[in-house]
Structure formats: C-alpha cells, structure tokens
Specification:
About 60% of the residues lie in helices and about 20% in strands. The protein has helices at about 5-25, 25-45, 50-65, 65-75, 85-105, 165-195, and strands at about 110-120, 125-135, 135-145, 150-160, 160-165. A five-stranded antiparallel beta sheet has the order 1-2-3-4-5. The protein is globular, with a radius of gyration of 20 Å. About 25% of the residues are buried.
C-alpha cells in the first residue's frame, strides 16, 4: 500500500501538469522559441545592423513561411503577377522582415519572452507570448500553419490585435494600385534600407 501512494501522487502531479507541458513542447511553440532565441542572441551580441541582420536572417527563414506571408499580404492580385516578379516580392519581403528585426532588437537590457499558452485557430495555431523588459510588457502573439510538416509563422499580432499582415496588406494595396509589382518590390527594398 505504501508503495502505491508515491506512485499515485506522481501520477496525479503528472496529470495536472501535462496540459501545460504538452503546450510548451508543441512543435508550434518550438518554432516561436527558435525565433525568440535568435532575437535574444542578436540583442546580446549588439554589433552593427548588418551583423544582426546576417545572424537573424537564417532564423527568419527557418521560422517564417515567407512565400505564404508575401502572397497573403499581396492579396488576390498575387495570381496575376508573373512568377519572376513573385520571387522578387518574396525576396524583398524577406529583406524587410530581417531588416526590421535587426533594427528593433538591437541591444539587450534583460528582456525575456514569456510563454502564455497556445490556441487552435482552425487548422492554424496561435502561440501567445509576452516580451518583458523591466516593468514593460508587450504582447506578441504568433499565428502558425503547418507547412510541409513544419509549423511556421504566418502572422504576428502586436498588443493582441494589430495584425502585421493586415497592416502590410493595406500598404501593399496602395503601392500595387499605382505601380504594380515592380513598384512594390522597390517600396519594400526602400523600407528595408531605411530600417538599416
């Protein structure tokens, strides 16, 4: 009987902890943790904008579905754009994403990312996190989609509500309307250069 008590207690503890443990070990959470680890690394390294961009670029490639994000941000007109221009848009979108992360995460001051849970959103998953810096807390939530067996980020929400994709879609639509895909590539490249 005494041997069963520790076993029963251990089972009860495991059962009560399992949802949180399962969430924390979810492959979508792992993707977000990879991004956060890369961001903390470039903050600690400081360096130049170029060196931070070089370091975070491969992390962005591993954690974001950049082709899908570009297509979603462009919207329905994507299917009318020739393949070479689509590829140029994806490259410019990547350059902007990398440059903005290199700009915004430039120095370490004790920041940390705190996991806040995971929710199903249809076939997607929403990973909730908070960026803490001293007494400041900023909500950063990530929408991920399974892409070729790997969970990748397809949108980022700031302050729980501001969708990066929705913001970019509005900006992209204006440029596409006046100058088409070549104008949008030039616009994205200018924004990336300005962030640097």
């Amino acid at each position: 009987m005494n041997r069963l008590v520790p076993t029963a207690v251990a089972f009860a503890l495991a059962a009560s902890a399992s949802p949180a443990v399962a969430q924390a070990t979810d492959p979508a959470v792992s993707t977000v943790n990879t991004l956060h680890g890369g961001l903390l690394n470039i903050m600690r390294a400081r360096g130049t904008h170029a060196s931070r961009a070089q370091s975070i670029g491969p992390v962005v490639d591993r954690t974001f579905d950049l082709p899908l994000m570009t297509r979603l941000a462009v919207g329905p007109s994507w299917t009318t754009i020739p393949a070479p221009q689509q590829a140029a848009l994806v490259r410019a979108f990547r350059a902007l994403t990398v440059s903005q992360y290199a700009k915004n995460f430039d120095a370490f001051g004790g920041e940390r990312f705190v996991f806040g849970g995971i929710e199903a959103r249809g076939a997607d998953k929403l990973v909730k996190t908070t960026l803490q810096s001293g007494s400041t807390r900023e909500s950063l939530n990530y929408r991920l989609r399974n892409s070729g067996g790997q969970w990748k980020i397809v949108d980022v929400y700031y302050r729980n509500a501001i969708s990066q994709l929705a913001t970019r879609r509005a900006d992209f639509a204006r440029v596409l309307k006046t100058g088409g895909a070549p104008a949008l590539v030039a616009h994205l490249n200018r924004l990336a250069a300005r962030a640097g």
